[in-house]
């Protein structure tokens, strides 16, 4: 495998952003007054990047992800996904979304859960079967097609939800703390598997996490957000090879980036209104 950092590759740096946000803000109107969830966000994410959003609870990480996915609507500024509005990108099925919980239907087998978006989109039975098999193989769940969610571990269920998000081959994968409820050993293994999947598929990934080691291990860039109103405090590059393993966490380069993220999170608190 190549050891060229993804963000340095010409095909990533020279192409139009997959996501572009300018002066993006979101304010909720409540009975107790306005709540400023996002404030003046400027961010470009280019093809093939793995960008993690990190910050304290309530800083707007998930809100920003939901704006990208057209699950929330910005109240100020502009954002495009693949050159169009988030609404149009959703209609074009430009992204797959992985939630914090697997959200699998317990009465459907793993294969039928993965196939659900394809059924909705009108794919033929033969095409559904081919795509389900290919994506379950990608997440190392081949042979579990006829199992039900309750027969799988939490980590396996989350891998099935990733296969479902990939089933219609979107260019963009949005992931909202998908491994946050799992124990550290399982989480480490899934981080390695996700990194390999990202390398194989070439998808653009936007990943929300509370974990500094997870963000540093997975990312090409880390977006450090300050507490509400959610602002970008820092954007930190992670110049690691694509074929990194967990052992990289013991290197000085990894430790230095993790410390920079910690410093940014501490500094970010000074921006609380």
From TrEMBL:
Q: Which family does it belong to?
A: Belongs to the ABC transporter superfamily.
Q: Which InterPro entries match?
A: AAA+_ATPase, ABC_transporter-like_ATP-bd, ABC_transporter-like_CS, ABC_transporter_ATP-bind, P-loop_NTPase
Q: Which Pfam families match?
A: ABC_tran
Give an example GO molecular function: ATP binding
**PANTHER family (UniProt xref):** ALIPHATIC SULFONATES IMPORT ATP-BINDING PROTEIN SSUB (PTHR42788:SF13), TAURINE IMPORT ATP-BINDING PROTEIN-RELATED (PTHR42788)
What protein does this entry describe?
A: ABC transporter ATP-binding protein
List the keywords (alphabetical): ATP-binding, Nucleotide-binding, Transport
SMART domains recorded for this chain?
AAA (SM00382)
């Amino acid at each position: 495998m190549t050891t060229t950092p993804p963000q340095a590759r010409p095909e990533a740096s020279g192409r139009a952003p997959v996501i572009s946000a300018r002066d993006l803000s979101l304010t909720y109107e409540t009975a107790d007054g306005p709540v400023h969830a996002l404030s003046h966000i400027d961010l470009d994410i280019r093809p093939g990047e793995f960008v993690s959003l990190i910050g304290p609870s309530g800083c707007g990480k998930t809100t920003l992800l939901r704006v990208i996915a057209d699950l929330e609507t910005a109240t100020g500024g502009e954002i495009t996904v693949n050159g169009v509005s988030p609404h149009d990108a959703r209609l074009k099925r430009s992204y797959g979304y992985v939630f914090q919980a697997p959200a699998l239907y317990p009465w459907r087998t793993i294969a039928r859960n993965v196939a659900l978006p394809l059924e909705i989109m009108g794919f033929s039975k033969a095409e559904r079967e081919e795509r389900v098999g290919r994506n379950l193989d990608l997440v190392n769940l081949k042979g579990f097609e006829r199992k039900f969610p309750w027969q799988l571990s939490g980590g396996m269920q989350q891998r099935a939800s990733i296969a479902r998000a990939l089933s219609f081959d979107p260019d963009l994968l949005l992931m909202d703390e998908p491994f946050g409820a799992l124990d550290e050993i399982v989480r480490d293994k899934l981080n390695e598997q996700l990194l390999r999947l990202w390398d194989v598929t070439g998808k653009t990934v936007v990943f929300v996490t509370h974990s500094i080691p997870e963000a540093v291990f997975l990312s090409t860039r880390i977006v450090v957000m300050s507490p509400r109103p959610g602002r970008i405090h820092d954007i930190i590059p992670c110049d690691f090879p694509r074929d990194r393993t967990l052992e990289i966490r013991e290197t000085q380069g990894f430790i230095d980036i993790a410390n920079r993220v910690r410093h940014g999170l501490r500094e970010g608190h000074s921006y609380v209104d």
